[in-house]
User: What shape does this take?
Amino acid sequence: MEIGSFIKLQRVKKGMTQEELAEGIVSMSYLSKIENLRAEASPEVVSMLCTRLGIDLDGDQTITIKEKCEEWFNMLFDASDKNEMIDKYNELNELLAVVRSDSLMLFEIHKIRYFLILGEFDNALEQINSLNELSGNFDNLQMYYWYKFKGNYATTSNEYNQSLRMYNLAEGKISYLNLPDSEIADLYYVISVTHSTLLHTLEAIEYADKAIEIFQKEYNFLRCAQCHIILGISYRRIKMYQKAIKHYNLARHLGELNKNNNVIQLTNQNLGYLYAVMGESKQAIKYYLQAIDDDSVGINERLIAITNLIKEYYKLQNFDKALEIIEQAKVILSQARNSVFYDLYYYIIHSYIHAINGDYEKFTTLVTEDLIPYLKKHKDHANLILFSKMLAKHFEDVGRYKDSVKYYKLANLTFEEVVNL
Amino acid sequence: MKKMIASVALGVILMGGFLFLQENQQSDLVHGGEAHPPIFQKATSFSVNL
Assistant: This one.
């Protein structure tokens, strides 16, 4: 890391202005030139500036710090112990505030991922903003992680187009760097997940295949299982059901080998959906039940599974069972008040409650005024088709044919949009 | 007067364009019924649900 960039970073971190740092040492314009690498400062000037910043220029610790940083970076990459990760962060943060190290900038960039893993999204955004003005001086390696972690942040904000842009920029840096294969595979994996979320099915398959090839060579079965799940979702979408089932079974097998419950239940959830789409409700229900009975599954995944289960029972007209599951769904929903998807599941669950109880006025109000506008806004095509048809059928049953046509039309138009995607 | 009307109209058009862009910057997102694996690997003593 260039000394100018280092001084600028430390000054910004300490909240000092250029005027305050330069006073009595150099002119403000000269400091600006040093920071932006347009002038080379003499060792005396560097020493005085660092003293004012409270930095030790002794290089003895450089190797130790580098090793410690790499150890901490790896913790962010793999499943690690939370407390150990926090302890190591605190140690490095204190050390790097007073010692000059080439690893400092990478450490600052990795803080974005650290905050995201801890769920501290505001801190992650603050870190991105504070590094923004320094990013012009980043080298290729720093740039790679800068793009990747900004992509991670966009993913957590559900801005998938933005995250894809960032991941593509990171991918463009790979050829200039000597990155470990596991890192490249991880980038391919996140690109695949992002494409899949955006319904770019063929790209999702392409990147999952690339990632799985590397994870297989490294015997990283858990990551292979996650790739198989993406492949299962992708092949289901292009209606290659047998291939999709094969990938889900492989994912489940690898999940069992690793005793990883999350992978097993994610597979159950997706197999349930696959059988629901194929019209095999009994099989779908079998898999959904396994997914919702497990407390270790994430709240969002359990809400997806339980709302799908309600849909299946409703489809089979088994209303008693549907109401029983709705009670369970309410309990899970109450634990998800902070989820960005809370409104969606609230609307879906209550739409079914009103429909089953025959409270049609509440049903039509909720679906027309809340659920359908929400689904349109978030481009949730699958649910939009389902609820438009449900509403249209209700209007047809009660003889409100004009309204019925309106919602059948909406379902059809949405379907055409999905086909064109 | 004409200038004022023209500048107000231009302002409205620009604001409209801005709002249109904002609207269209939103990601296409389909929740459907499938669940994707997470982008971060979970740490052992806590969980991240993304």
The radius of gyration of chain B is 22 Å. Residues 13 and 19 of chain B are 10 Å apart (CA to CA). Helices of chain B lie at 2-24. Confidence is low (pLDDT under 50) at residues 18-30, 43-50 of chain B.
